[in-house]
């Protein structure tokens, strides 16, 4: 991997790459939230297509987990598509929030949808990435976010993928489950994101915005929570974590099946994958990204 360089502002003049085609950069992209670090692997042959890889609920501030928990960069290393991996956004659902979280002293308001659909693509357009030729993929928290971004920004996204995402926000107890998860991951308050059952909350529910996904190529998957090939706990902590990952994945499976029924009732097709075993963990999502990759490249004309 090339030594990362840092760009503090968009270049002026002709589109350039800070590293050669196929190289790697870490960019600091201006936003209303302050500078956001974005890890970028440039398209192998300098093409204009991009795949946006969104992180999970416990997104870190130093690296996007796709870059170290999976082989995503190697997977797309010979493809003419730029991998875009934003850093940060813990518990954000990649949404535009109503206010800063008031349970953890957050100093700014999350505006992730604005960043991902305006500020970031505008910035990357200076590097030869088309603002109208993106695919987006997310896991867990970012599964519904990937679908939402594509649903409301069809001019930007040509493909969307959700892996193990909670796709039915109307399900009994789902809001409170999300509340507990967000408090556990950074002490964030879901009410600061959207008031209960407000238009903003409903806008984030895939079951509500499903009609806007018509004619969008999609890959949607979830395992059933049964331990699989990557589950080998060898300590009490490992056993606890595996049990937790089993339960979360089972909930994702039920939610994803409900969403499949919703799309079917609307006559909207998608590619579905339900592995016979697997828990809520990164190696399974790496496998699902590999299955989604051919459809992404086709939709982006980047094969």
Descriptive notes:
With 303 residues, this protein is an alpha/beta fold. It is 35% helix and 14% strand. The protein has 10 helices and 8 strands. Helix 9 links the parallel strand 7 and strand 8. It is globular, with a radius of gyration of 18 Å.
In total, the number of strands is: 8
Chain-averaged pLDDT? 93
> Approximately how much beta-strand content do the residues carry?
5-15%
Low-confidence stretches: 1-6
Question: How would you sum up the global shape?
Answer: globular
Topology as a string of helices (H) and strands (E): EEEHHEHEHEHHHHEHEH
User: What is the straight-line distance between the termini?
Assistant: 22 Å
SS class: alpha/beta
Largest sheet: 8 strands, mixed
Count of helix runs: 10
As laid out across the biggest beta sheet, the strand order is 1-2-4-3-5-6-7-8
Percent of residues in helices: 25-40%
Radius of gyration: 18 Å
List the helices and strands and how they pair.
Blueprint: E1 24-29, E2 36-41, E3 50-53, H1 66-69, H2 72-75, E4 82-86, H3 112-125, E5 134-139, H4 142-152, E6 157-163, H5 174-184, H6 190-193, H7 199-203, H8 206-209, E7 218-221, H9 236-266, E8 271-273, H10 282-299
Parallel strand pairs: 3-4, 3-5, 5-6, 6-7, 7-8
Antiparallel strand pairs: 1-2, 2-4
Quick take:
The protein has 303 residues and is of the alpha/beta class. The protein contains 10 helices and 8 strands.
Name the features.
303 residues, alpha/beta, 8-stranded mixed β-sheet, 14% strand, globular
